[in-house]
Amino acid sequence: MFDVLPGTPIGELLRQPPIDPLEARILVSHALGLTRVQLITRADQPCTEDEALRLASLFRRRIAGEPIAYLVGEREFFGLMLHTTPDVLIPRPETELLVELALQYLPQGGRVLDLGTGSGAIAIAIAHQRPDAQVTASDRSTAALRIAAANAARHHARVAFIESDWYAAIPPGAFELIVSNPPYIVAGDPHLSQGDLRHEPIDALTDHGDGLGALRQIVAGGAPRLAPGGRLLMEHGYDQASAVRALLQAAGFADVQSWQDLAGIERVSGGRRI
């Protein structure tokens, strides 16, 4: 049992093994409603009994493996704070590459679809950067769409949300750009039972097969939903770039290529509809 004693100075709360100091700072700031500067200026201030109870609960849950993003209820993505719950994947920095590419290829006033939007991170980041764009986001999860819509409202991002299992409710020829970060982890991958992934929605992580199932569906239905010259961009696993390029080429896409993230990993692949 992990406890925090009432009267413990705030400065000591930031050094609570086995909690990582950075994570402790985030949790203490969240529980006590203090800014980073206030954590320093009030380092000698003792915590109250109620604050100690709240912090002990958060610390215990973190030690048990619950993700920080779920404990504090939000995560930053592309400069925007987004509400996150166990109903959606936690936005990750490597996915920002997909947004950067979308902003590069989306024409002025263009129409873009984010398939499997989850928290809405990709769609909202695009809409926030490009208010001229017509952004649509879809997901088959009603709970995820509620979270995404709230995030869009929080940032005054103009996004239309559609409940759809991939392309089921998506009309043909409607977009200049389609983007997606689908489930691509192979069933049985040991990472699914490690770290934050243990607590994230399993169906948003894996296709329960070879990891390419969702990517195959997205590629197969992409061209009919794209305007001529439109592009399809997809995030995928660290070792899937070659397989995804082959899918795109077999489906008749041109200019097929992959892009590396900041770690030098081929993280996004895409192509252009002829």
From TrEMBL:
Residues 96-187 form the Methyltransferase small domain. Signal peptide: none annotated. Pfam families: MTS, PrmC_N. Its EC number is 2.1.1.297. PROSITE patterns: N6_MTASE. Residues 15-73 form the Release factor glutamine methyltransferase N-terminal domain. InterPro entries: DNA_methylase_N6_adenine_CS, HemK-like, N5-glutamine_MTase, PrmC_N, RF_methyltr_PrmC, SAM-dependent_MTases_sf, Small_mtfrase_dom. Transmembrane segments: none annotated. GO terms for biological process: methylation. GO terms for molecular function: methyltransferase activity. PANTHER family: HEMK METHYLTRANSFERASE, MTRF1L RELEASE FACTOR GLUTAMINE METHYLTRANSFERASE. Belongs to the protein N5-glutamine methyltransferase family. PrmC subfamily. Methylates the class 1 translation termination release factors RF1/PrfA and RF2/PrfB on the glutamine residue of the universally conserved GGQ motif. This is Release factor glutamine methyltransferase. The lineage of its organism: Bacteria, Pseudomonadati, Pseudomonadota, Betaproteobacteria, Burkholderiales. The gene is hemK.
